[in-house]
Amino acid sequence: MADADREPNVSDEEILAVFARTDDSALLPEEVADELPITADRIGDQVDDLYERGLLDTGDDPRGEAYTLTEAGASQAADAESSVETDVEAQASTTSSDAVPPAMQNDPSETPQAPSQEPLGDAYDLAGDVADAIDAFEPPGSQEQKRRRREALRAAYGYLRRRGRVSREAFERDVFPEHTAGYGSPEEGWWESVVRPGLSGVPDVEAPDDPDASDGEWRVVGDAVGERGPE
Predict the structure, then answer these.
(1) Which residues contact residue 126 at a Cβ distance below 8 angstroms, ignoring those fewer than 6 apart?
(2) Please, are residues 203 and 126 in contact by the beta-carbon 8 Å criterion?
(3) Cα-based torsion angle of the residue sequence 104, 107, 108, 109 in order, rounded to the nearest 10 degrees
(4) pLDDT per 10-residue tile (average), the chain, 231 residues
(5) Cα–Cα distance measured from residue 157 to residue 106, given in angstroms and rounded to the nearest whole number
(6) Phi, psi (5° rounding) for residue 188?
């Protein structure tokens, strides 16, 4: 997705939440932008405003002008996170099959509800060599981004393990929405920098001849195929 297609801005609370989640002591504006659907150029003014309001602090950093979360900023981020969790719980309690497009309601195998009802990678006790391969995978980004991107890889593996064989299109449709790992769309690096190379390094995964083909089938081989089997 081109930068012009991205959202022009994000909320102050979303920016503060990035700082609250990170393990790094300070973040550059471009590192914050990597976690959100906004470009580094557009986020600069908002970061400056948060600094002027005492929610962020800045200091000398060899990489450039980096920011840290102040006590006031941490408090506002925590309040926003609590509000989001309450809204998500309320929405989940009212979700029904009405949200499923009519054309998909007659075929349960095509409905988007399966990923939300079934666990992804974290629900499985992964074999030692598989867990080691995922833990050793080095995606791009900050330490917090690497953590989230390994989680996305683990989720993609769990999805593949449960089905036995999965296309790139299915990964992007069913796994990406819940495990964006800071990407605005699968085409912005989620597939090419995380899922494709990550799965290629897992010992019981067999890649298709063309790993980037939307309909090429990735397969789990050996004894690791999940209970549902191939679709």
Answers:
(1) 134, 154, 157
(2) no
(3) -100
(4) 50 86 79 82 84 86 84 80 52 47 45 43 64 92 90 93 92 94 91 95 93 92 49 39
(5) 28
(6) -85, 5
Beta bridge partners of 69: 56
As a whole number of Å, the CA-based R_g of the chain is: 20
User: In DSSP terms, which residues pair with 220 in a beta bridge?
Assistant: 205
> In the chain, what is the straight-line distance between the N-terminal and C-terminal CA atoms, in Å?
30
Whole-model pTM: value is 0.49
Q: Which domains does the chain have, with CATH numbers?
A: 3-72 (1.10.10.10), 109-224 (no CATH)
Secondary-structure percent of the chain, ordered helix, strand, coil, rounded to 5: 55, 10, 35
Residues contacting 143, CB < 8 A, separation 6+: 22, 23, 24
Give, as one character, the DSSP assignment of residue 54. T
Structure token digits, residue 90: 């309320």
Please list the alpha-helical segments (H only) found in the chain: 12-21, 29-34, 40-52, 71-94, 114-117, 128-136, 143-163, 168-170, 196-200
Exposed, middle or buried, 136 (CB in 10 Å: 0-12/13-18/19+)? Answer: exposed
